[in-house]
Amino acid sequence: MWRRIAEKFEKYPSQIAVAREFLKLGISIKDGKAYCGKIELVPAKIGEALGVDRKVVVSAIQNIESDEDLRKVFEKLKPVADITEVARFLGYGVLEVYAESSKPGIASGVTSALAKEGIVIRYMLAEDPELSVESKMVVVTDTKIPGKVVEEILKVEGVKKVVIS
Question: What pLDDT, in 10s, does the model give residues 75-131?
Fold first, then answer.
């Protein structure tokens, strides 16, 4: 899908930055407007946050809506709360797994290692490697993660690094 978006905006680098953020944050597009869930977002404020002019935001929205395939994708996006930072205050374990994005079975290997220790997963988010600098998966668990589980996760093919907090 990202290739399709990149082609649509190849002449408009500022607009592609807007489209990328919309995808990352789950901002949907409907009837010429941007939404976070049911909350309408103001193009000037979006532009300010992204370091582009409001007109760039409006043009990006128009370009998305002018393409039937992109419109169908962007109108269905939904925001997802990232509880990673809050989890630490609630006493949950947080595991960040950095991996090769092209390897299958990484999520399965991580969840299997946690399941073997009886650790319950409360939240899990894998970032799209086409939208992020690094391929990273964040797992929030109901308890702190013991070192022996980290050792098992590091054995999963494709895992580069594991950070616990």
Answer: 999 998 889 989 989 999 999 999 987 788 999 999 999 999 999 999 999 887 776
Contact 70, 5 (CB under 8 A): yes
> Which CATH number does the domain housing residue 30 bear?
1.10.10
Residues 35 and 62 in one domain: yes
- Residue in 87, 80, 61 with CA at minimum distance from that of residue 140: 87
- Whether 160 is covered by a domain: the verdict is yes
In terms of residue numbers, what domain contains 17? 2-74
In angstroms, the CA 165 to CA 159 distance is 18
E-strand stretches of 69-132 = 93-99, 121-126
- Burial of residue 91, with CB atoms counted within 10 A of its CB: 0-12 exposed, 13-18 middle, 19 or more buried: exposed
Q: What is the pTM of this model?
A: 0.78
What span, in angstroms and rounded, lies between the C-alpha atoms of 23 and 26?
5
Residue 107 lies in a domain: yes
